[in-house]
Amino acid sequence: xxxxxxxxxxxxxxxxxxxxxxxxxxxxxxxxxxxxxxxxxxxxxxxxxxxxxxxxxxxxxxxxxxxxxxxxxxxxxxxxxxxxxxxxxxxxxxxxxxxxxxxxxxxxxxxxxxxxxxxxxxxxxxxxxxxxxxxxxxxxxxxxxxxxxxxxxxxxxxxxxxxxxxxxxxxxxxxxxxxxxxxxxxxxxxxxxxxxxxxxxxxxxxxxxxxxxxxxxxxxxxxxxxxxxxxxxxxxxxxxxxxxxxxxxxxxxxxxxxxxxxxxxxxxxxxxxxxxxxxxxxxxxxxxxxxx
Amino acid sequence: xxxxxxxxxxxxxxxxxxxxxxxxxxxxxxxxxxxxxxxxxxxxxxxxxxxxxxxxxxxxxxxxxxxxxxxxxxxxxxxxxxxxxxxxxxxxxxxxxxxxxxxxxxxxxxxxxxxxxxxxxxxxxxxxxxxxxxxxxxxxxxxxxxxxxxxxxxxxxxxxxxxxxxxxxxxxxxxxxxxxxxxxxxxxxxxxxxxxxxxxxxxxxxxxxxxxxxxxxxxxxxxxxxxxxxxxxxxxxxxxxxxxxxxxxxxxxxxxxxxxxxxxxxxxxxxxxxx
Lengths: 292, 275
Description:
A: mainly alpha; flat; B: mainly alpha; MetI-like fold; 2 domains; 13 helices
């Protein structure tokens, strides 16, 4: 049969058009604009070569720090979320009462708006009236009460901690599905051989879960590099000079001040970096897909 | 031995409850404080609201925060983009999956690449202005759709591959046109995948807040997330009102989550777990 006739390519036209015009095109022309002096003050665009990139990668500006922040945020939250998520997934595949209730509640932060969660945590982490510090004082550990979001020492760690609180349930859910797909035969055989609980985890669960862990890592890295809402709501890049500034919040600030060229140059750096990561991710996600 | 097992089981249950509590506290905080008066909520603690409960907070918020307008906006944005995304994604992924020519294979990968790609919002303003979509409801809807397409295509593509191609052959022999084949034979079978796409797209678009931040200057077009954030900026001293606003904004999401949990989990774990 003629596949082209039964499965007409125009079926895909709508999706391709929208995606290309509103998603890919800005990314591509954005690279072009990063070689100009585009801003809200100039009517005419002038070609300035690599100047914007020179600014972005110069040691004087905050940009290198912003990129470093983005990477630290991404790596830190990815590693901790994976470890905690794995621990929770193992915990919640044991025989526990109200198992689905626990799973449901732990997953819930992942479906709520990140922006709103950020707003809630500005209250919880408030130095004087916040729930966390009130709790510490209440149990006699007043020394632990810190200015979480307002001191440069703690702000970045606090932001990461809130994001870990938000995202661990998601990782846990994926890992639970991974653990449940492991055949119980392995565990039975292991029990007969007299393996301890730890040995079962170390020699069966962990190795068989590696592909799933690879995916959760990739998903987390994608999320972390693009993080915006959480930081915008919690600290908006502060306190002080770019303490918690990441790429997307920096781009938004450049947009607000009309420095479009720098904004699009920063976006383009990210665009190229993530398209590069994307190739690896796609290979990971599509490698086992069923072929007819 | 038995006592030891019992102790272990108790410890495991206690650990689960502890973590559940840590996840619940922030939400409980919002719930309790939305029923307090301004003074009571200023401490933002977990004490039970003093009687009488301040149901009035919700009315105040709906009026002052213009929640009805933003609720309608959010509904329009989510419902229309869910519809567009579902239709376009299922049509595209159906063709990509069934006819694996070189071109289609490439187009599929090109679309899925969007899962990782970041949006260049700054350059996007140029495109939006050129298409006169800036500060329009249509612009936001199309933008949301474009952003949700890559993952939706990925999700449905995997599902179409599992449907036997013999179905199509039988239908074609019976004289089915391509459109009819898709609408009457394939689409009904895609129901589980489509349900997942609907639920996930709804949640993502309802929570989305960056595009309106860049592209909607008039507050009458703001979705709920943006208006709640704006409200927070104006009334940050009245946590009772902020909490009431947060609660009302999150309610649809929580409702959809409770009803569609099955689909959310299956969609979010798609591609992550090979069974």
